[in-house]
Amino acid sequence: MISLESMRTVMTKMISEFEELDHIVGQFLVGNLSKGANASGSPYFNVELRDASGSISAKKWDIRPNDENIFTIGNVVLIEGEVIKYKDSLQMKITSAEPVPLEELDVAKFIKAPPIPKEELIKRFNAHVESIKNEDCRKILDYLIKRLSPRLFDYPAAVSVHHEYGSGLLMHTVSMADHAVYFANYYKDIDLDILLTGVLLHDMGKCIEFEGPVVYKYSLEGKLLGHITIMTSEIRRAAEGLKITSEVPILLEHMVLAHHGYQEFGSPVLPQTKEALLLSLIDNLDSKIVIASKALEGVNPGEFSQKIFPLDNRMLYKPKE
Amino acid sequence: MISLESMRTVMTKMISEFEELDHIVGQFLVGNLSKGANASGSPYFNVELRDASGSISAKKWDIRPNDENIFTIGNVVLIEGEVIKYKDSLQMKITSAEPVPLEELDVAKFIKAPPIPKEELIKRFNAHVESIKNEDCRKILDYLIKRLSPRLFDYPAAVSVHHEYGSGLLMHTVSMADHAVYFANYYKDIDLDILLTGVLLHDMGKCIEFEGPVVYKYSLEGKLLGHITIMTSEIRRAAEGLKITSEVPILLEHMVLAHHGYQEFGSPVLPQTKEALLLSLIDNLDSKIVIASKALEGVNPGEFSQKIFPLDNRMLYKPKE
Amino acid sequence: MISLESMRTVMTKMISEFEELDHIVGQFLVGNLSKGANASGSPYFNVELRDASGSISAKKWDIRPNDENIFTIGNVVLIEGEVIKYKDSLQMKITSAEPVPLEELDVAKFIKAPPIPKEELIKRFNAHVESIKNEDCRKILDYLIKRLSPRLFDYPAAVSVHHEYGSGLLMHTVSMADHAVYFANYYKDIDLDILLTGVLLHDMGKCIEFEGPVVYKYSLEGKLLGHITIMTSEIRRAAEGLKITSEVPILLEHMVLAHHGYQEFGSPVLPQTKEALLLSLIDNLDSKIVIASKALEGVNPGEFSQKIFPLDNRMLYKPKE
Amino acid sequence: MISLESMRTVMTKMISEFEELDHIVGQFLVGNLSKGANASGSPYFNVELRDASGSISAKKWDIRPNDENIFTIGNVVLIEGEVIKYKDSLQMKITSAEPVPLEELDVAKFIKAPPIPKEELIKRFNAHVESIKNEDCRKILDYLIKRLSPRLFDYPAAVSVHHEYGSGLLMHTVSMADHAVYFANYYKDIDLDILLTGVLLHDMGKCIEFEGPVVYKYSLEGKLLGHITIMTSEIRRAAEGLKITSEVPILLEHMVLAHHGYQEFGSPVLPQTKEALLLSLIDNLDSKIVIASKALEGVNPGEFSQKIFPLDNRMLYKPKE
Amino acid sequence: MISLESMRTVMTKMISEFEELDHIVGQFLVGNLSKGANASGSPYFNVELRDASGSISAKKWDIRPNDENIFTIGNVVLIEGEVIKYKDSLQMKITSAEPVPLEELDVAKFIKAPPIPKEELIKRFNAHVESIKNEDCRKILDYLIKRLSPRLFDYPAAVSVHHEYGSGLLMHTVSMADHAVYFANYYKDIDLDILLTGVLLHDMGKCIEFEGPVVYKYSLEGKLLGHITIMTSEIRRAAEGLKITSEVPILLEHMVLAHHGYQEFGSPVLPQTKEALLLSLIDNLDSKIVIASKALEGVNPGEFSQKIFPLDNRMLYKPKE
Amino acid sequence: MISLESMRTVMTKMISEFEELDHIVGQFLVGNLSKGANASGSPYFNVELRDASGSISAKKWDIRPNDENIFTIGNVVLIEGEVIKYKDSLQMKITSAEPVPLEELDVAKFIKAPPIPKEELIKRFNAHVESIKNEDCRKILDYLIKRLSPRLFDYPAAVSVHHEYGSGLLMHTVSMADHAVYFANYYKDIDLDILLTGVLLHDMGKCIEFEGPVVYKYSLEGKLLGHITIMTSEIRRAAEGLKITSEVPILLEHMVLAHHGYQEFGSPVLPQTKEALLLSLIDNLDSKIVIASKALEGVNPGEFSQKIFPLDNRMLYKPKE
Q1: pLDDT value at position D210?
Q2: ipTM of the predicted structure?
Q3: Taking an 8 Å Cβ-Cβ cutoff, which residues of chain D contact chain B?
Q4: Roughly what angle, to the nearest 10 degrees, separates helices E248-258 and E192-201?
Q5: Taking burial as the number of CB atoms within 10 A of a residue's CB, which of E119, E251, F41, F210 is the most buried?
């Protein structure tokens, strides 16, 4: 048990603000865990603790019976400890740890804010929705937004706490919608209502594919079906429930189904309408540019990034200024 | 117009029974069409006529204004003509031709009977359905069988009039169900109810993927979505309508989604349960053996078949007896 | 020889304006050629004649000794003939034909005008050039534009008279430059000067890769080196001649070298800067959308296009209105 | 030397029966080995000891000059030691170790029994052999069974002590033979004698491809030729020796050669007879189902297995009950 | 029947020597065949006739009952006819044709001579054999040369009458043996005896893979097993018959088995000895250079060859002189 | 600081000559580095030290503030230490270390001598140059040799200190030139001047692709452009500067561009002249044989090498003697 007394004198800083000799109490995510043995053979834990501001290496030297359960990767733990310096880096010496019940979880502490405030993104998302005049598109869209809110506005764009911020799904969707408007204006013969509805729906299946309040993991449906199939089914079901008889639901299902562009990337059919083709190209473009930008954050001019897994493991060069 | 008088004296044989000098009137399918010009430059049609018994080469020498519409590949045409011999083969000289309205179409004349009578297949299909004890499986299955009957019992297994017989889908499904029972008895730890339901459902989406009374073609949904996605969506919708909350619908959707085994064959996810894996293996086995058997029909012992497209274009050898 | 007399009474229409019984004299491109033999065994030519407005099937019944040389695919021929109707289509009966010397070639008759007038495109191209402030970029760009004008403004985007219009290269380059400006404004940390210079240069090597006044063919350099390598070398040479010592030429060479995105598409290196990555994505997007638009021209709503070779042979669907 | 005295008081349990404080003497297989250094810099061995019942982590703290040779991965070692508890797991502290001469090796201790007793499997194997009426098949089969017994009945199905049991090759062969009988009855026009002979022979080359009494390794022939080529050659040689002039040996060689189905899986030719095709499909089916069953052993309902290498690294889900 | 009288006055020239108005009688190979119908609807044959000197287009206007059997592709036919000129090319008008019994076949007329006389090649082949000192190599080699002579010295290098000459297999083998000697002298640590024996044996299986006196076709063994597997088996059988117990036969079998270099080219194992690696590299080099030389025969300087199928369909450029 | 006194008594041996208890001072390359912590938690370095004669494991127990910078992989460090024995191996205990300024670097100590002396290789290289009679070839070659000397004669063949010796690029080039002469003599119709010039130029771009006096690394140009593109550009530039107007520069550029043979190996075009094809085949052959020879160095007869990465990770077998 963490004593009430100690709670009064300790600090509750974010990891990025830690300084040597700080006495800290707070909720932290177990990002990584390995076990070691000290010179006398007693076991200890090397733990990576994380919050939205960063991560720190920590040691739990004295292992208690329940610690194995508490220190599970992905768990949030209430930790008390001291910040020390080791080999020029800060490290935390954990003095006590206890589980955090779901209802006491301080979710906001673990989710990085998106580059644009969530409220602003929601406003832009809604403006795109409002711009759609095709009635069948609007009915399906309104129904599914209602069904999948508020997850739709909170979820990250991918399953990974690393580099990912909250509302990443929303951010990606709004960017793609902006690009859709740009290209529909630029090229002739694009049906913007269909394209925009497809864009707004295309990744919504991730609200069912992922689960978890802090560390997102694939749900069973996510693993066995995938967000593409889940969302395609949802549109079909919505259209039948809304008694829509036009071609619109098939076009929307097709856009969602084909948006990864190729079978080897998880789309069982290739894009076969101009709108589906454009959607998959915009998705590819926005995803890759965002990945590249993240990978180049913090890289010095004149140097290369780390290997970037989703970009075929290539390294990117940041030119000299 | 074909005169009533001539109708009285002509024959209505199947193509395989034609003899030289027969005078024929009957419905025939336009299997292929090319245009030629005779020595004086006048155009004529080379037509391949088909019924379930075979095909014959025919000529329409005198082209009338509407003939271009009547002789469309895939159309069924009411034809009057004479059987002649040309270079040792029978050929038909078409004297008149007129379109057949859909309601007068003699479908039975164009569909080869399956090797096992349709009624017998339906009986075996139903026996498999009856054997399933899992209530969620039965509810979904009963609902979807009702929804997709009677197409389910009539459709061929693939879009092609060549080599395909009616009820081919049913024949393939019943064979796979028999194999499912065999393997579930052989190996331990197979959930036969789940496997069998998956088998009975797995190709039902073809009832929506294909369309047409005689020559089956891909429907718009078939092209833009494919039978795998269509059926996965149908199960999801059925399960929600039937208020099923167990894991069963996800397992069934997964089996249908994964049954082609690999992404490059159209399944966006790989089989991830033992039942899904076994289903895809049985499907692969039955399909390939049936294709091989068809390809070897009529090949002489000691000779090779034609190249078989769905078997990587290989030729199969029929051993000497 | 085509008699002067006949010249006075004949018409010089574009193919799309031909009507039955027209008597035509004019330059036409031999798009395709096959040989036949008439009933008496005498040879004749089936010729496809083309101009920028379309194509027509033609017959040359009476073959003269030199006709084999005159009717070579890709040649422009001065033809006199009559327009007749055959099987509901117009056809031309060629009465005489003679070669067209290069200096009398009416190039404008064979090159479709781009959707936007060439002068307008040049103006927009130049405006993009003017917007670049980086001096090294400007020096290299100015040098190479001068070196490759005016081909740069006239060439089609690809080697094919079919569907291709004049200034296609310019049209594609200006569209990509517009997109570059849009995306550089949208995303942070893009060096627009570098990106824009790369876009303006990326396909200029086609001015050396292709050759020919009407029907563009690959030059020897085009076949043995390809436009990507040609242009990369040109930038290197320019930079050395201009005594530029900054990193800029390497970044530009890299963008050109990597713009096909993958080795199997002809880029020996993958894009390794954000600007190179974005350039390859914009190129891919613009190319595919333009191909899709062309393929859907003339397709009826509710129907599919022909198979589109550069889009993996898929057919595109034009939705109902 | 392990003292005789200590031998009297110690136990010779299987690893799965070990309890804390047991004093053990017995033969164990060195499954894995790594070297460490204690706090004072002295080296020690971390050893994984195995028998057919399982494995245990062990330490050899005091390294003797010959220990490096004795503790070689794959060796069987006579070990004396004590079972202690460390971090909630049992561990063995090795007090002495000496090599086991080949002739004293207690093979039975290291080979897991197959799910069906070996004698029963041999009986079923022989029944399949007896069922074959084709004389050429029988002659070749009898000759090769005699040549490769008794390895044929003892060998595992794959080179790996992990998860593999003795007679695995026999078990797999008998299962496939059972399936061959089932399918030959189900489909028409299968030559069961040819198919069954192919099945019984198809993997016999593994008796030459692998070697070793406990831990099977690839022999030189196994590495340079592979079991498919080895067995194909053996059939050819047998047929020549037995003066068989029918087509039968070629059909059998072909079935063995083609049984992996594709070139990338090691078959230089594709199956080109119906029997060869069916054999490869049955082999694929039985192998994958057995692998899946092993991977799901011990997985809790509602959870996923580890990644399964021979199933494309996928994880399998065990449904809730 | 061809009249004796006409035989006296006709010529028996090779095709390359034909002149207009020649009256020819002689054996010719039917290289290609298509059927046409003349203006009055009567059928006729377009035949390509070949001998070792070239090919000529021919017509058989008047079809007799047995002509269909006589004019089979690959047959050699005794033909009488007249050489006429049609569209600037020579053509033969066939007046009579009859089958040639196997024993009267003038094989030498259809097989192009190799660039180096066969006797010279045999001498060089034997010199390479004589140079081998390793006794096991010599025993196996002598045995197999005896078994496969004289086919070994007559066969072409590939199944195709086009571009292929007699003794092509021998020519390719001798070239590779020369290269083997060169490289074994150049690099250290090559076992020339092993390498040379492997080279001399590597393609001998083609003597069993192909069959036919003039037009070589794949035999049943060729199709179901392939020359690589056939020869590997032959070495194994030879070694056992010769009671060789050294490693030599395994090394030789391995070299033959691996000589196509990769699984997708038909070698089930990769080269795993230096000699096997070098053999596969020499084979690849000699094959490609010979194919390139043939493809460039007759191409004018400054022009490209036809597409070359075995070189990935590329065209080769012949530089200007 | 290393004391002058200690310098007097210590030895400056190469690593392969180290003996127990030697006291060493000398320059060593940091080949590898990992950090550990001793029993009391203090950090230490595990360093792999290398020179041209071999490598040794070393410990730096007492870490000074600047040691992290000094012990960077790829750095050459002036080290003082003692050779001790640990677990039967020699190990160095580092007592002091300091950086080596570039101008004091003893390059010769780190570069293995090539198997043939550099002077001898240069002589043979020059003889090949002298043999070329084509003036355009000579002009380009002379210009580029001058431009890239002396790196051309010093550089290794690949970026890796492991197994690589100095002048490796030269050694590989001379071997290929020898092979070029051999094959041009053997086959007809090879233009030896063109082939030889291509061989001598083909890898010269590595002089710009790599950089560094001891450990070669990819330069920025190496990474963004690659040696193939760099050299192709250099030839183009040279030809323009030398005012060469023949086809020769295009043929040379093509040979360099195509020498990796396939797009997936970095050549954007396939070899399209016989000389380019032969060059790529010789390059492939020499590279693979040299890699195989290195991999088999030190392997005992009857055993396999390690996995060889550039040979598809296969292991090679060294036959028994």
Answers
A1: 85
A2: 0.85
A3: 175, 178-179, 182-183, 186-189, 191, 194, 247, 251, 270, 272-274, 277-278, 281-282, 284-285, 288-289, 292-293, 296, 304, 311-312, 314-320
A4: 50
A5: E251
